[in-house]
Each structure stands twice: as structure tokens, then as C-alpha cells.
Amino acid sequence: MEIGIDKIGFYAPHMYLDMNKLAVERNVEPEKFTIGIGQEKMAIAPITQDSVTLAANAALNILDEEDKEKIDFVLFGTETGIDHSKSGAVYVHRLLGINPNARAVEVKQACYGATAAIQMAKGHIALNPESKVLVLGSDIARYGLKTGGEATQGAGAVAMVISAEPRVMRFEGPSAFYSDDIMDFWRPVYSDKAMVDGKFSNEQYISFFTKVWKQYKEKAGLSLEDFEAICFHLPYTKMGKKALRAVIEEASQSVQERLMDNYQVSTEYNRNVGNIYTGSLYLSLLSLLEEKEDLADGSLIGLFSYGSGAVGEFFAGRLQPNYRDHLFTEKHDELFGTRKEISVEEYENMFEETLPSDGSSIELDIDADPAPICLSGIKEHSRQYVNKQRDVSTLSGGDSR
Ligand code: COA
């Protein structure tokens, strides 16, 4: 049975910061951010967006009534979840009106969460071929103002429908994976900002990639020339290039050029959104699929997932016949085309404006946020979400259903 990605979409908040302007304010040469790190724009989440609303908005863009009926498993990969106990998946499940006879679970292992969710989804579909699984990767990356990681922040979500007989990409062949207990990036429960040993995390990312690539080649009997492109988890767009460079000399000159050219296309969306943690690899895949118009049906695409702490995995998918007909390119073009630039000062103010953490209630102005699904406040310790398209005024996590 073929199992893979039937639909894929993403959502990013409607505001962005120009990295050239951030560089000027931080007394850094703009080329450090735009070339050295490889980021042009950074999506900035208003206070009315969190990992739940970003994920729900991403899924809202791609699901139809049949999907909502057939989805019986919602898997939510995130490392910026909103509750230690209740999963973000349960909120998204309700906000989208998915079939109540479904499982809803959150998956955590840094930026690897959505990949773990995909592997679970494959098992679920293998046992239940009529089912569909909604896999979400949704995060807001926060390192802090004026920190080394500041230029690698971002916000957004990717939503994928995993099913049998998929229309976009079928997963093919083995997976190679590797885990080791390291402290390269983490976020203690008392902190809303990540801790990172930047240089060490870069080294580990490359080391994990070379290990799983070596293992994958042995398991699959394939080499670089078999791949039309390789997509990477992209905390910033230079990162995947460094990993690809570590193995690229295994290939002929023409294959090297093809992989490097396609790598560039696969970083386009990420370059303009920033780091979205769990969704980052799949945003890169989306960038390749939507931006490279001559990418042939049947192409084999490699996928490298890395979640600090750390777990790495390499696997592959083959593009289905007429896959382009099943993309949502116009919606994503519109999303990019309608974003609004904000100043560094506005970004700094928004960064400091956080939700109360002392248990008090708050009401938020959702009129300023064009997203269909927003966080409208906190009442009695429970986040209030609104799906404007369903014209629901205020709903909490279940008590006013
Ligand atoms: N023009 C072009 N390139 C420039 C430049 C300029 N004017 N100034 C600096 N650069 C280049 C550097 O040469 C370097 O390139 P290299 O990595 O290929 O050597 C790059 O810009 C970054 O410069 P560096 O001095 O290393 O930056 P930094 O000390 O501020 O750290 C990160 C960069 C990415 C480590 C930091 O932003 C970080 O910690 N990010 C979060 C961690 C992360 O994302 N880890 C990834 C694993 S998930």
C-alpha cells in the first residue's frame, strides 16, 4: 500500500520584520543575516496567535468536509505547546470541526516532533487504510532580544494530511535514525525562551546528518545521484547547506550542481518566514514543491529531520503523478503577498508583550489580527479561541461547546 502526504499547507502570521533593518539596529553588517545566516524576513506572531491557532489556521486552509469526516487521528508536533497536560491537538480538533471519533495527541522532541508524528501516522494508516491522519508542526521560535539566536527566530505552522493513495508524495524505502542525549538546545519549563549552545548545535546537526545519511545509504542501497533534491530541517537557511556540503563530494559535478540548485529553491519560504521549529523541514519541502515549477513527477526527495537534544532521521518520498494539481500554491502566494512589514521597535514591543503567567484573565483584541482563528483571551486559566469563519464568539477549551 502506498502511504504519504495527500495534502500539505502552511500558515504564518501576517507580520514580518526585515532582517536588514534588524541588522542595522543591532550594529551588525546586514550580509551577516542575509548571507552568513541566510534569512531575509522573520515572521512575527501577534499576541493573538499561539502554536494552537497557527496550526489550526494552517489546517483550515487545506481541509475539506471529506477530510474532516475521515480524519480519526490528530497529531500535533510542537515544542512551544500551551499546556503541560492537555494537547494542542484537542483544541485544533474542535476548532476545525473534525469527526469526534478521533484520537488527538501532542508529540514532543524539539524540532523532530512532526517527523515522529508522520512515522506514527504511517503505522496508523497501514492498519487502517481508510483513515486519514492530520499531522501538524507548529511553533513560535523565541531566543530573546539582542541574543545570538535572535536572527533565527520565526513563527508558523505546517499541516499535512497523511493517507493511503496520497496525491502529493508517497513515502518510499527505509528510514535511518539516531538519538543521543546532548544539550545543544533546550527550553526548561520555567522559561519562555530557548537556551542554545549555537556552535555546538551546528556541529551536532551536521554530525547527526552524516551518521543517518551513512546508515540510510547502507539500508536503502541508494546514493546522492538517486535524489532530485534533499530537504533539510532549517533553523536558518545556511544550516542545511553546511550539512549538504559535508557529503556532497560523494556525487559527480552535475549531481552536486543539481542538489545545490534545488537546495536553494527549497529554502525560499524558510528564508522569508524564519525558524518554525517542528514545521521547518516541511516548509522547506513545500518551498521546493511550489517554487520549482519543472520538478518532475516521480522525483525522489530526501528529507532530513533534526530535533535538538537530539534525534535525527533521514527518509525519502517520491512525487506522485500530477502532484502539482494538489498543491495550495495560490493560497500561499496570497499569504506572502498580504503580509505587513513592522519596524524593529514594533517587533521589540510585541516580543515583550506576553500573556499573563500569574493566573489572571485577559481579553485580547482579535480585530487587529486577520487570521480566521485567533486567541481572544484567557478566562479562568483557560485559553479562549475563536474561529471567525464559524462565527463563534468565544469558546474555551471545551466548557462552552
Ligand atoms: N557577510 C557574510 N557572511 C558573514 C558576515 C558578513 N558580513 N559576517 C558574518 N558572516 C557569516 C559568518 O562567517 C558565519 O558563517 P559560517 O557559519 O559559514 O562560518 C555566519 O555568518 C554566522 O556568523 P557567526 O559569527 O558564527 O554568528 P553567531 O556567533 O552570531 O552565531 C548562530 C550564529 C546561528 C550559531 C546563532 O544565530 C544561533 O545560536 N542560532 C540558534 C541555534 C540554531 O539555530 N542551531 C541550529 C541547530 S537546530
UniProtKB/TrEMBL annotation:
The keyword Acyltransferase applies. GO terms for molecular function: hydroxymethylglutaryl-CoA synthase activity. It comes from the Bacteria. Its EC number is 2.3.3.10. Residues 2-164 form the Hydroxymethylglutaryl-coenzyme A synthase N-terminal domain. The keyword Acyltransferase applies. Keywords: Acyltransferase, Transferase. Residues 256-350 form the Hydroxymethylglutaryl-coenzyme A synthase C-terminal domain. Belongs to the thiolase-like superfamily. HMG-CoA synthase family. This is Hydroxymethylglutaryl-CoA synthase. The lineage of its organism: Bacteria, Bacillati, Bacillota, Bacilli, Bacillales.
